């Protein structure tokens, strides 16, 4: 049940001013913040002014109430007028502009308080209940304290409406200034938040860039690891041919010595020395390739006519296998190990996988175009099925490229990597019998004849 404090009769503007003042005094003594004091008192004066303007007389009663465990300062404004006929329409409005400004006091008051109730009956008047919540620190008010307050109010000097309104205006101006300062503080805080957000976005961009760089480095590292794997297989792949030749010559030399054929053994010895020299040159080149790195590998003037004869001589070519090399091949200023491995792999594959060695033919040629040299290695072997063309240069596992036990399956992937290192490309044409491998090489490495 509400705890009664005091009651004021509302008959004129001076009573409205008094109701406002009492609302301010009570809310202040009950510990409300100044902004809430002004809101509550303004709501009270709006309703009391409606009573004077539309009815002529009424009353306001202040009480302390408790709702759902919270304490409120409550003002009950009542009159005995004819009632508000369009109350429901007024309460449904969402704006504060109405016809002839009727109802604006009700809408304004409802926005200023925490609890708002209104009842209006025809010829029985209107009752408006306004309540503002008290802070948790608000003191407990006993009967003696309320009695003391009322005695103080009764001994106050006569209120001057002009002075009181001026004081109210000064309080409103003070509240507005506080609000302005708070708005300035809020704006500064928003600017600081925007600045921090900008820094955060920049930091996020830097982090994203670092992540992208790390991802690029990871991809680069993966590529390097794959190249290392390919290089390890390359060593075994490319050294096998000269080792086989050395083994064959050693066997022949051993047979000559056992048979006492010294003259024939003397003829075989240079062949053995030649193969060991070729193997030493190949090992030296491979070591240079692994230690110097792709970009730092030294270049030299390279006569492809001589290089191709060296490659063919290092391979185990059957006597019936015919190899035709185009005359007048160009001279390039490039890395020897690159072209040596490219031609060695392509030619050795053609020899290794030919199904009719007695009729085998391998042709090596080139064509000069504006940006690239086009080299072709073509054989009349069994050909390669079309479904394998796309994956042919990506094979790393044994037996996937060609079904042979002595193949590492890496030869063509090594060729592709070396050609692409020079900015060129390689492709295969094979339909039915025969295979034609074509790769490009940059013309800027071509040494022109004077």
From TrEMBL:
Task: Please list the GO terms describing molecular function.
Answer: phosphorelay response regulator activity; phosphorelay sensor kinase activity; protein kinase activator activity
Superkingdom in the source lineage: Bacteria
Under InterPro entries, the record lists:
BphY/WalK/GraS-like, HATPase_C_sf, HATPase_dom, His_kinase_dom, HisK_dim/P_dom, HisK_dim/P_sf, Sig_transdc_His_kin-like_C
Provide the alphabetized UniProt keywords.
Coiled coil, Kinase, Phosphoprotein, Transferase
Q: What class of enzyme is it?
A: transferase
Gene Ontology biological process: osmosensory signaling via phosphorelay pathway
Ranges for domain Histidine kinase: 234-445
The UniProt entry's coiled-coil ranges are: 162-227
Tell me which EC number(s) this protein carries.
2.7.13.3
Q: Catalysed reaction(s)?
A: ATP + protein L-histidine = ADP + protein N-phospho-L-histidine
Task: Output this protein's name.
Answer: histidine kinase
């Amino acid at each position: 049940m509400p705890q009664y404090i005091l009651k004021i009769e509302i008959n004129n503007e001076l009573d409205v001013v008094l109701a406002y003042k009492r609302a301010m005094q009570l809310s202040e003594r009950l510990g409300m913040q100044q902004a809430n004091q002004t809101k509550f008192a303004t709501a009270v004066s709006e309703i009391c002014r409606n009573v004077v303007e539309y009815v002529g007389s009424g009353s306001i009663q202040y009480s302390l109430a408790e709702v759902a465990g919270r304490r409120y300062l409550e003002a009950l404004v009542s009159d005995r007028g004819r009632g508000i006929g369009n109350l429901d329409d007024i309460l449904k409005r969402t704006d504060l502009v109405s016809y002839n400004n009727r109802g604006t006091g009700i809408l304004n008051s409802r926005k200023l308080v925490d609890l708002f109730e209104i009842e209006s009956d025809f010829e029985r008047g209107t009752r408006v209940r306004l309540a503002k919540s008290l802070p948790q620190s608000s003191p407990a008010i006993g009967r003696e304290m309320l009695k003391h307050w009322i005695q103080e109010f009764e001994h106050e000097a006569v209120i001057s409406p002009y002075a009181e309104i001026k004081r109210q205006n000064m309080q409103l101006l003070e509240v507005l200034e506080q609000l302005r300062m708070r708005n300035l503080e809020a704006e500064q805080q928003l600017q600081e938040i925007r600045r921090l957000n900008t820094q955060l976005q920049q930091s996020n961009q830097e982090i994203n860039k670092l992540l992208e760089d790390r991802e690029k480095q990871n991809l680069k590292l993966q590529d390097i690891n794959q190249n290392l794997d390919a290089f390890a297989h390359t060593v075994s792949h490319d050294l096998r041919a000269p080792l086989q030749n050395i083994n064959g010559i050693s066997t022949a030399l051993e047979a000559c010595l056992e048979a006492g054929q010294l003259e024939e053994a003397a003829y075989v010895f240079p062949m053995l020395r030649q193969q060991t020299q070729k193997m030493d040159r190949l090992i030296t080149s491979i070591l240079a390739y692994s230690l110097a790195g792709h970009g730092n590998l030294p270049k030299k003037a390279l006569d492809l006519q001589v290089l191709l004869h060296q490659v063919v001589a290092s391979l185990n070519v059957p006597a019936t296998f015919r190899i035709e090399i185009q005359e007048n091949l160009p001279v390039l200023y490039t890395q020897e190990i690159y072209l040596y491995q490219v031609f060695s792999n392509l030619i050795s594959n053609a020899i290794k996988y030919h199904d009719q060695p007695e009729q085998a033919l391998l042709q090596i040629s080139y064509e000069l175009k504006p940006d690239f040299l086009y080299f072709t290695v073509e054989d009349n072997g069994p050909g390669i099925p079309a479904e394998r063309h796309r994956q042919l240069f990506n094979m790393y596992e044994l037996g996937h490229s060609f079904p042979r036990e002595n193949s590492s399956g890496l030869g063509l992937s090594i060729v592709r990597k070396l050609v692409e290192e020079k900015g060129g490309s390689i492709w295969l044409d094979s339909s039915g019998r025969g295979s034609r491998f074509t790769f490009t090489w940059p013309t800027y490495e071509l040494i022109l004849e004077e």
